[in-house]
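Appendix B. Raw example, untouched.
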Amino acid sequence: MTDFDLLMRGGTVVDGTGSPPRYADVGVLGDRILAIDDLSAIDERGVAQVIDAHGLVVAPGFIDPHGHSDGSLFVDGGLGGHLRQGYTTHLSGNCGEALAPLTDAGRELVALALRPNQLVARWRTFGEYLDAVDGERLGVNLAFLVGQGTVRGSAMG
């Protein structure tokens, strides 16, 4: 059988399909789950990392549809707090507040949002903001909304 990069042993698997939770091992190779089953026959010496998941839940990553990490991701791109809660996908730009686009009229509104993390916007357009995000080492999948309040502030001040 194929060796795994990661083998989680004996966790309670909740697979997101609506099936009842079940005890199983999970074998991962690269970025793919290859097996969810009784993998007790696998020789752990051929596995890069083995996790004893007894007493733990093994589940797909959760989606956080309401986040405000638009600026804090520049402080902690890994968003470790989200990962530790099981979130692997995060949607930012909620409540009408985003960090782009920027005009001279709306710059102070965004500066207020960035001030707690002692950051300064180095972009003007939404595309430039996304380029800045791409320059970070991210730990989760990110998606962004263009905040209507930011657009309004950029147009009206």
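End of appendix B.
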